[in-house]
Amino acid sequence: MHIQTFAAAALAALIPATSASAQTPVEPPTPASIIAAAPAADWRAIDPADLLVMDLAPDREGQARQVIIQLLPPPFSQGWVENIRTLAAAHWWDGTSVYRVVDNWVAQWGAGEDEAGQSKALPAGIVPVPESAYVTAVRRGPEDGYDHVLTGRGGQDGREDIVVSRWLDPYAIGAHVAGWPIALDSEGDGTAWPVHCYGAVGVARDLSPDTGTGAELYAVIGHAPRQLDRNIAVVGRVIEGIEHLSVLPRGTGEAGVYRTAAEHTPIRSVRTGDALPAAEQPRFQYLAPRSDSFARYLAVKANRQDTFYKVPAGGVDLCNAPVPIRRMEP
Amino acid sequence: MHIQTFAAAALAALIPATSASAQTPVEPPTPASIIAAAPAADWRAIDPADLLVMDLAPDREGQARQVIIQLLPPPFSQGWVENIRTLAAAHWWDGTSVYRVVDNWVAQWGAGEDEAGQSKALPAGIVPVPESAYVTAVRRGPEDGYDHVLTGRGGQDGREDIVVSRWLDPYAIGAHVAGWPIALDSEGDGTAWPVHCYGAVGVARDLSPDTGTGAELYAVIGHAPRQLDRNIAVVGRVIEGIEHLSVLPRGTGEAGVYRTAAEHTPIRSVRTGDALPAAEQPRFQYLAPRSDSFARYLAVKANRQDTFYKVPAGGVDLCNAPVPIRRMEP
């Protein structure tokens, strides 16, 4: 069988992934067209210092494999995020590996333990984080109608607004804060927490009250395992290169750990973006949750009306409408 | 870095996948322990005739790659399912390939089109299926309280009960029918339809009113794309070997189609299970939705209380509680 790329592409486009809708002017908006039309004012820059750049060893064809992780902003999971900054600054992950991959679950990396059950020694400054840090207090915001969380950024009153989603979430009240999907148990005077969506990065841990240091991390490579919310620290999300983790062979040992060292994927280096030379620092932006563009994006995600769709869904779960993120030229 | 398998496994078990809980007798039930304890009476056999056995070419290490797909039972999507039986009987997929893979979306296979835009000729007996077949009528069941769908199996009155889930679904009313996750727009006198969960198999199509023949199929390899429900025909689900599709390299051509023929994964053969020699016919069972075991399974999926979990989720979406399926000795 021989397939020309153009012909196969024409067929394959029948299930649209994220194709733009430039061809037919009368086409109703799609998520892609809304993102493309969003004005510059609706986008926010991501500080390179809030990115982890993980270089895996090249693949069999010698192709580079870079995974870029955005770290959660204050006030979410900051104890673990600070540990992760310390580990990256110490080059702790360099020479470790991806050692566990479970289908529709996670890819996990770090140093694991040696034959004596000992972990690789951690750098100075790693601190234990209490389980109370899994959630964050929600402050009522009667002055402008927006509940918020305190961030400490820009002084004691630094805050980020909580933008509650009108779309039902089966686990909690869905919302967005500073470009992140966040769940709430109550609108005001309750708690908020980051959620496990596809690509979410979390902190592997032993049994409670241990919460993990951040040295062993995983990324979600399947359907959102929301049962882990508030039970494991979410510290970030893969914003580029998730396919370098999601295509890795599934481990056949206990709990999906690889049976042999040869199966591991070596990690060459992990750095925060600001530790790279200026020209190599990755630049990304996210679509601001309080923007009109974001509101339109969510509404269209919940009710597609472009040509391919005959029946709008009438809803969208928090993890099925990823916050739009785009890469910028440096 | 060197990691002994046992030590790494001990660490990796910190994020439990489907580990049983045999070690601590006082442990509250887990989904795995409930499945393990389910009595034989709570399981239903899957007819090998309702399975598609897809053999891909061996991988680079020469390992066999078999994907087993369960086809939807009546009354769901039967027009497409019948086409698929016709295609398998004609050995139509033999020599075709997996030609499109998109991360967190789908792996797609079949013959695609040649350079003249022509599809591989279809066997006799392939029939067009109308869009009305995306949904099925729900019958009220006042006589015993269970709404149901008519199957035609076992005569005109053949029926399958609809077991509505108490757990909120963001897209519809969640339910289970004959071991399948099903969505409803109303409890009785409305419609029911199969849903796109991880592993779901659907029928690629051109723009409406075309609904696809079933010759080009895809499997979901990411977060459940529920917006496709009622817009594309779901015809089955991968019940074994999904990892042979989910690890395939992502296509870099338009819409994720591979750029070169060399990237395609050849399909050696696709057969219904009953077309195989008796000794090779795969035997599976599913946990019956009306069983106590299934009710317990769903409740525990929604509220994990075993040692690893500190905060029960308080809910579970339809796709985050896959119907338990087990392989039996032939």
- Class by SSE composition of chain A: alpha+beta
Interface with most residues: A-B, 100 and 99 residues
Mean pLDDT of chain A: 91
Largest sheet of chain A: 8 strands, antiparallel, barrel
- The fraction of residues in strands of chain A falls at 25-35%
Oligomeric organization of the protein chains: homodimer
Counted beta strands of chain A:
18
Termini separation of chain A: 43 Å
CATH topology of chain A: Cyclophilin
Number of helices of chain A: 5
Going by CATH, the homologous superfamily of chain A would be Cyclophilin-like
Helix-residue proportion of chain A: 10-25%
What's the architecture of chain A, going by CATH?
Beta Barrel
Describe this structure in words.
Two copies of one chain form a homodimer. Chain A is an alpha+beta fold and 330 residues long. The first copy, chain A, has a single domain (46-285), classed as Cyclophilin-like (Cyclophilin, Beta Barrel), CATH 2.40.100.10. Chain A contains five helices and 18 strands. Chain A has helices at 5-12, 31-37, 78-89, 243-246, 292-302, and strands at 43-46, 51-56, 65-71, 97-101, 106-110, 136-137, 148-150, 159-161, 163-164, 173-177, 180-184, 191-194, 200-203, 217-220, 234-240, 265-272, 283-287, 325-328. In chain A, strands 2-3-15-13-14-5-4-16 form an eight-stranded antiparallel barrel. In chain A, helix 2 runs antiparallel to helix 5 (292-302). Chain A starts with a helix and ends with a strand. Mean pLDDT of chain A is 91; it is low at 1-14 and 16-22. Chains A and B meet through helix 1 and strand 4 of A and helix 1 and strand 4 of B.
